[in-house]
Amino acid sequence: MTLAILVFLFFVPALVFRLAWGFVATPEQVPRWQRALAGWLERIAAHLRRQHPPVYDPFTTLHVQSRLGKVADHMRELEADPHTYARAERLIASGLAYDQLLAEACKLAGVEVEPHPKGDGAERFREETELASRGWAW
What we know:
70% of the residues lie in helices and 0% in strands. It contains 5 helices and no strands. The chain has helices at residues 2-22, 32-48, 58-80, 87-109, 121-133. Helix 4 packs across helix 5. The longest helix has 23 residues, at 58-80.
């Protein structure tokens, strides 16, 4: 019985003192209760500022599809006509414009555009097949 009283008299006040000391911070430490409160408020703020997926205008999508079709037709015409003046430069410029429109279409369709060198045929093919699998046609 005296052992229980001795434990109670020495360890319970020490435990209470330790818990109280946990709420007091040194000048270079942030108190635990402030860290816990900050984490709790951050979770609430993250829940409140939930990101909603952007809604794209279908006319923007239609415009990009029609531009893709026009640029692709222009490139086919350039490739078919061997007597075009500065044909190589026009094909390069048209290809870069086509790649830019493909990147914009991928953004609208939710396709990830990977970093690649300009005019990369493999990346262009991947983007075209991804867009075609999502129902895009041009």
